[in-house]
Please model this.
Amino acid sequence: MKTILLLEDLPEIRVWLRKLVLEVFPGATISESARVHDAIELVAAVKFDLALIDLGLPDGSGVDVVTRLRDMQPEAQSVVVTIHDDDEHLFPALQAGAFGYILKEQARELITEQLQRISQGEPPLSPSIARRVMAYFSAKAKPQPNLNAMPNVSLTDRESEVLLRVAKGYTLPEIGVQLGLSRHTIADYVKQIYRKLNVSSRAEAALEAQRLGLFR
Amino acid sequence: MAALPSLWLWLGLLAGAGWAPAAHAVSLEIRSALSTPALQANDKAYPESGQQVPVSLPDEWARSRPGSSGPIWYRVQFQPLTDLEPDELMALFIEHVCSSADVYLNGQLVHSSGRLTEPLINNCNHPQLVTLPAGLIKAGGNRIDIKLAGYPLAEVGSRQRAGALSALQVGPQSELAQRHAGLTAVQVWAPQAVSATLLLMGGFMFVLGFINRRESHLAYFGALSVGWALFDSRLWLRGVPVLQLGHSAIEFLLCAMLGFITWAAVQFLLRYARKRHRAVDVGLPVQSALLAVSLVLAGKAGLHDLAAVWYVLLALEVAAAAVWHLHHQRHARSVWLMAGLLSTVILAGGIEFAAQWTGARPLAAHLAQLAVPVIFVVVGLRLVQQHGWALYRAEQGKAQLELRVREATSEIERNFRQLAELRVEQVTERERKRIAADLHDDLGAKLLTIVHTSDNERISTLAREALEEMRLSVRGLTGRPVRLADALGDWRAEVVSRLAQAGIEGDWEAPEDLPQTLSARAYVQTTRILREATSNIIKHSGADHCSVSASLTDGDFHLVVQDNGHGISAEVDGRLDRGHGLASMKNRAKQLQGQCLVESGPGYGTVIRLTLPLDRAIEGA
Model:
């Protein structure tokens, strides 16, 4: 029996999503919210297994909820459900700890399938997000001052290989065939990439806060 | 500076002209005479009845008869020269006669140097040459009577202008004429020439300095030069021709002129060193006025004594100013020149004072008198040269400044243009972002609601497509150029996964790692064309295989989408064009200056060939 947070400001879409979620996870308990403020209060009160979070909300960005959820309930899975398909909107959410994203306007069956895949540990990864992640880690690989204070988070060769192929437009099943790996293994790599992105980003944020003197 | 050697050469020549006749032995020098005061001012003959007093020549009235203003008669005797060449005239040469004299030979008037009544003609600096007519000369013995009129020392500003008669010389006319010419050159013509030069140059410099107040030293120097030129006129001017000024008025003016000259000289020395003193600015004019007033108060009898005191005072002031100037300018490059010139002037002043004190007037004193204006001319030339240089440098500086101003102006204009462009870009960018956000929040939300709430599948699809279109448009608005390699990755992921979901085998061929970029608009339009083509294949073609190949030739980007479906029949093409979106695909290609060809026939499948000129696509057609 799953407990699910649904953060969405458009009432019709919220109703529609609720129906959809109940189809995928029958009998799930769904907490709905239309504002970031309410969602954060819910996060403090209720323990969730899954959170579907819209990014553009009337009182702020869904990224804050992702962050809060990551801090307070690390085992909960945050999934960004958004109308924005560009990496400039998605990447910060992924850095904050979102475990994949779903584009709202996709057909119902597609979203259903993606939700199932995500809950089974198979998050989606677009070429542009993959390029963004690659750029992020290659910039980090360059020597920086104060690096000793940071946990050494870097991608393995295999993870990098998967990322590179995703960036070139290959689908995950294709990559599995190319590398002679199972679809499951490839999905694990993608999950690992998301996790490392989050860990590294959090460490970086902490370091930045330290640098600004917030922890002194 | 080049004037300096020629100056000495010139002085040497003058000196040579003055000295040459002194070596002659033939002429006879007469150093004693009988003298007697005139009985009446208009006597025409030596008063035999008067008291005859023997005097030695030169006879200075200041020593022999202080206070006397003459006229005094002198009588000398001489024997005719025996070694004269035939046809040679005899002459009498008087080096110094002050102020004026008539000469009688054996009772006959043979020469008059000018009027003997007030105001006397001033001959003090003019040597006199009297040709003695051969017919009047007697073989036995001859007497020369000289009636001299002059002024007592007390009434004149300088001993040079007090009544006096020098020694007389009798000799061959040719020799004495030569000597007379030499002395006249030094004492009259040279001062005249120098005065004229000084007057002209001084006037010029005064105007120059007056116009350019920052060069006020030029104005003072001009005033000094003009003042000195006027002052020097005492050496050669025998009488004021038009004004008929009395003697004492002329003496007063000459003495008062010295106050003015000192004023100009001291101010020049200060201003030339770029200094201004308020006290000096006020003090010097006041002093000049005081000098004039004191001279008036002293009257003509006290003129000489008072003037002597003033001379010392003024000379000390000028000397002090000169020393101050040299000290202040001791680090200047050309200080040695000023030092040389100023010490020469001071030396000349010393000689003049000595001449005044002793009453003697050797040639050196005349040369010293001449040296001062000559030095003024040299200094004047130097100042003009400096002024010219300054002017030249100023012109050059101005030209450079103009150049720099032009450069700076164009730089500023360029910066301003860049700034304006940047600002336009920033404003545009901000506006684009705002429009994009508005579209997402408002239009996007509404379309999304339609997509998921409409019961009509067709309306849902249309809304979804509209949403995609909107997003692409927004990306086109805000987008930066996209690397072709990245674009191919995006397209591949979309096309291949869509085909796979539809159960169609996809085959993708594209070169890797292309460095070229596409403008955001070209990327968006191509994405739409490709999306439309993929949709057509999925919906209408009935194909089970599709190949997409991208290539790059001669700066053109080619994309070929080929399926093995049943193609589009001609009549169906016309009717279903809207559904297939073939027209919009072609239209989009045309907007990018490219083309989109559709080859199809029943049973063959469909080939869509898209060609885009890459450089235009980069520019953002």
Q: What stands out?
A: The interface with chain B takes residues 10, 12-13, 16, 56, 83-86, 104-105, 107-108, 110, 126-128, 131, 166-171, 173-174 of chain A (CB under 8 Å).
